[in-house]
Write a structure and sequence with these properties.
Rossmann fold; alpha/beta; about 240 residues; six-stranded parallel sheet; single chain
Length: about 240
C-alpha cells in the first residue's frame, strides 16, 4: 500500500518510513524538497494521489502559542482537505501524552491538530505518545547561559523508533480513533535525565537548576493516564548508545 508520511525527514519520520518499508508498504515522504508545502497546500493533491493511508508526524519548533496553533491549524486543514479529495482511507496522527492536561503553548497547537483530524471525514487514528529519549537534550539545547534551567517534571520517555513501529502498525490496519496512550518502560525525572546526559558528554557541561512549572507539567501531567502499550528501550540504554 502507498502510505504518505508527512514529516518523513524528521526524527520519528525517518523511522516511520523504514518501518513501513519493512512491512512491505511503499512509503512516500511529503516534504518541501519534494514540492509539498503544508502551509500553502501546494503539491498535496499530487502527493496523496493513490495513497491508502497517511501518517502525520509533522512538527514546528516554537515556544509561542500563536505560532504553534497557526501552524497546526493551517497544515491540518490543508492535509485533511487533500486526504478527503484523494480518497485516503486512514489518517494516522502522532500527538503527545498529556496534551489535554498540561497548559503549554506548543500543546495548544497539537490540540488544534487533533480537533481538525476528528472533525474531518477521513477515518482517523490519533496516537498520543510520551516524550522521546531525546527530549532532555532538546530542552538543554534551547537554554542559553551558564546554568541550564530544566522543568521539574516526571516523564516516561520512549524510543522514537518504538513510536514509529507503532505508527506503522496502526497505518497498516483500520482506524482506531483515539488509540491507547503509548509510553516508555519506566518513569524518569526530567532534571535527572538532563544531568545524566551532561555527565555522559551528550550536552554542554553546566549545572542544572530544577524549575517548578505550573499548568500540570510539574504535577505528573506528562505521564500516561492509564494502562496501555509500553516500549522496552530505557533512557539508560539510549544514553549509553548515543554517547558511546
Amino acid at each position: 500500500m502507498k502510505i504518505a508520511v508527512v514529516g518523513g525527514t524528521g526524527l520519528a519520520g525517518r523511522f516511520v518510513v523504514e518501518a513501513l518499508r519493512t512491512r512491505g508498504h511503499t512509503p512516500v515522504v511529503l516534504s518541501r524538497g519534494q514540492g509539498v508545502d503544508l502551509l500553502t497546500g501546494s503539491g498535496l493533491d499530487a502527493a496523496l494521489a493513490g495513497a491508502g493511508a497517511v501518517v502525520d508526524v509533522s512538527n514546528v519548533i516554537t515556544t509561542r502559542k500563536s505560532v504553534s496553533v497557526g501552524f497546526f491549524d493551517t497544515a491540518g486543514r490543508h492535509l485533511v482537505g487533500a486526504a478527503e479529495r484523494a480518497g485516503v482511507r486512514h489518517l494516522v496522527t502522532l500527538s503527545i501524552v498529556g496534551v489535554d492536561r498540561v497548559r503549554n503553548p506548543y500543546y495548544a497547537g497539537k490540540l488544534r491538530q487533533e480537533e481538525i483530524v476528528r472533525s474531518g471525514s477521513v477515518p482517523w487514528t490519533v496516537l498520543r505518545a510520551t516524550q522521546f529519549h531525546e527530549f532532555a537534550g532538546q530542552l538543554l539545547s534551547g537554554v542559553p547561559g551558564p546554568v541550564a534551567v530544566v522543568p521539574a517534571a516526571r516523564v516516561q520517555p520512549i524510543a522514537a523508533r518504538e513510536v514509529a513501529e507503532a505508527l506503522a502498525d496502526i497505518a497498516s490496519g483500520g482506524p482506531r480513533a483515539m488509540a491507547a496512550e503509548l509510553a516508555g518502560p519506566r518513569v524518569e525525572s526530567l532534571v535527572d535525565m538532563a544531568r545524566r546526559l551532561i555527565a555522559a558528554g551528550g550536552a554542554r557541561r553546566r549545572p542544572v537548576l530544577p524549575l517548578y512549572v505550573p499548568g500540570g507539567m510539574s504535577s505528573g501531567g506528562l505521564l500516561p493516564a492509564g494502562t496501555g502499550p509500553r516500549g522496552t528501550r530505557r533512557f539508560a540504554d539510549w544514553l549509553s548508545e548515543s554517547t558511546a
